[in-house]
Amino acid sequence: MSILTSTRPYRIPGYLRPRPATVLGLAPPAWAAVLGLAAMAAVELASRTGVVSKFDLVPPSRMAARAAGLLTDTGFLTGQLVPSIGLIAATFAIAGGLGVAAAYLLWRSEWCRKATLPLLGVYYAVPVFAVYPILVVLFGVGTAPILVVSVAFAVVVVITNSLTGFDSVPATVTKLARARRLTARQYLTKVLLPAAVPDVVAGLRLGLVYSTIGVLATEFILSTKGLGHFIADAYHTFRVDDMYAGILLICVVALILNVTVAAMLGRIDWRRR
Asked: Which residues contact 58 (CB under 8 A, 6 or more apart)?
């Protein structure tokens, strides 16, 4: 008996059904908020009831109160928060530009690609932060070594993802571009980059993550200002509330930067339109 004449209701197989937009009436962002609030409530309860010492783990309510106080402190904003955000933005811009440009050069030159890819494959096995003493000798303590280390830490992930995007262009499209006698510039701007956008966007989003990690981690050891330095100084001087407030602000800053950049990059990603 066919499906059309059957009296029994036909059920679409689970692997063909679209994924539900909500679970228990909540969308994924709402579930993220619920899980985050539940985790903070658990930490608050553990700290308040003495399961964990307040000297080891400050209750989130105290973290939030101290973080709010720091945000009203002009000295903290100009001396710690703004420099870190500026370095993250600069690192992201430099690593993004260099990464896409380097990927294009590797894609154009097969010899250069074969010589470089093995090095890129083992790049993150090398402790990049181990070279900071050399950078201190060359540039001193300050912004320059932080920028160099952070860009070096973030640029490779942009290169590898962008190269994957360039490789994804079908050979038939390349042949069609040659038949239409497109110049190298026309092919780059009208064919290659638009086709590679999804992978380039993925690389840039990961580049932002690595830029944030690189800047904040390097500030712990190479800077006299910034959020990383603020947390390190609070740790060494036993200012527990300041240390956890700084960690909370790092989480908030990273979340805001990732959401903002993801929204901006999503506008040029044709897969999400």
From this structure: 47, 240, 241, 244
Residue type, 47: S
d(CA 127, CA 214): 12
**pLDDT tens digits for range 73-122:** 999 999 899 999 999 999 999 999 999 999 999 988 888 888 888 888 77
DSSP state, 268?
T
pTM for this one? 0.82
φ and ψ of 25, to 5 deg: 85, 5
Identify the residue whose tokens are 């903002």. Answer: 260
Considering the segment(s) 69-120+154-272 as one domain, its CATH architecture is Orthogonal Bundle (1.10)
Structure tokens at 271: 């897969």
The angle formed by the CA atoms of residues 236, 239 and 244, to the nearest 5 degrees, is 100
Report residue 8 as tokens. Answer: 């029994």
pLDDT tens per residue, range 178-214: 888 888 888 888 888 888 888 899 899 999 999 999 8
The Cα–Cα gap between 79 and 56 comes to 27
DSSP string, 154-176: HHHHHHHHHHHHHHTS-HHHHHH
Quick one: tokens of 150?
Answer: 């952070």
